[in-house]
């Protein structure tokens, strides 16, 4: 696949426009033929011991792919049973042509009885599904996945998964693998769709890259190629201040650990200096645990104002274990008015739950220098209307929130989304499930802060931090605790 499109994420609506544009220059049936042949090849390669391939075909072009796959499997000598949803006489266009080229018998979908040794090829609905599946399909899904527990190879996306949001529309197949064409769709990456798609194969059926680039939105998978050019320069003569000075606010004496996790991550992620800004009553607790990080007392706005006289101190992390909402709001105001860069996490986000607009106003009208790192609950405190809108995907919510806040939004989870006010969106895919542990988000905040302190633009700083955080989880391994993560942060990718 072309290197510039292998990270592209395309919505079903945009993919429809791409298909229509491709049909002006290419044979649309030829594209369907290549898609169906790719499905058949994947089925034979992945399931060499299958006794029978049960191909379930829908009433649209996804079903057409299924008829092509069934013909190819039959020609390869495999046992094939084809079952159709709806009347085959009602098929139109390329799907009708694909059906006409299939010489075998086709039974109604309701007649399919799962049998031991079957491999189901799900060609009922593709990524364009935006309504609940019919009851007849829900019944087949129940019979295949719950009762018979048969392996499923999905065409484009498991039927029942909304390709735009990744949500389940009534019921959905749980596939062992999915074959999609040209580009990933949001439903392949957003939960629960990602877990239902199984192993994903993206097959190039020959649509020109120029058409993908022309019609696609600014969504990609988060990989180093996206932000590699923004990485900080590693010069031999550079000194510690040249690598950036990061400051992390500590909570009270009973809640200092979260900030120390952020500070440790900031050091490991490359900041030249990290200072923990501690309430005086927590100084002794923090001092007992710090070695490489510095420590300064900050009890209120006056202490912070004095600290901001040092122009070298430009980047801050506020929120992990902080606790005091009123003090958080005062500190954020001073940092915003001083033109500083800020990673706002956890308690820092919650401090503005009663007046999110006040936060957004502080950072409006300029290049983004605010990075927000909410999980779903914290997101709902700042953006309750977006959180409650069931029509929005996680990508939609993050994108709208970034535009509203003029900040970079890291909407955390197993399918973390990074969004910028200008509409750019990345979906992360390298985080292992065991990264979901207490304190993991504090480490992420520290990595983001370190990247900002080293001079990276906010979007690239956030995206690269999410990726390195995921890699740290992979390196630390299953059973990790947050304390393991800073030492596992990998070097910058080559």
From TrEMBL:
Cofactor (UniProt): K(+); Mg(2+)
Pfam families: Carb_kinase (PF01256), YjeF_N (PF03853)
One GO MF term attached to the UniProt entry: ADP-dependent NAD(P)H-hydrate dehydratase activity
Keyword Nucleotidyltransferase: no
Cofactor detail note: Binds 1 potassium ion per subunit.
UniProt KW keywords: ATP-binding, Isomerase, Kinase, Lyase, Metal-binding, Multifunctional enzyme, NAD, NADP, Nucleotide-binding, Potassium, Transferase
Residue ranges of domain YjeF N-terminal in the record: 15-213
CDD domains: YXKO-related
SUPFAM superfamilies reported in the protein's UniProt record: Ribokinase-like (SSF53613), YjeF N-terminal domain-like (SSF64153)
Reactions accelerated catalytically: (6S)-NADPHX + ADP = AMP + phosphate + NADPH + H(+); (6R)-NADPHX = (6S)-NADPHX; (6S)-NADHX + ADP = AMP + phosphate + NADH + H(+); (6R)-NADHX = (6S)-NADHX
Ranges where the YjeF C-terminal domain occurs: 223-494
Residues that bind (6S)-NADPHX: 61-65, 126-132, 156, 258, 321, 375, 442
Residues at which AMP binds: 412-416, 441
PANTHER family attached to this UniProt entry: ATP-DEPENDENT (S)-NAD(P)H-HYDRATE DEHYDRATASE, ATP-DEPENDENT (S)-NAD(P)H-HYDRATE DEHYDRATASE FAMILY MEMBER
Protein name: Bifunctional NAD(P)H-hydrate repair enzyme
Organism, scientific name: Shinella granuli
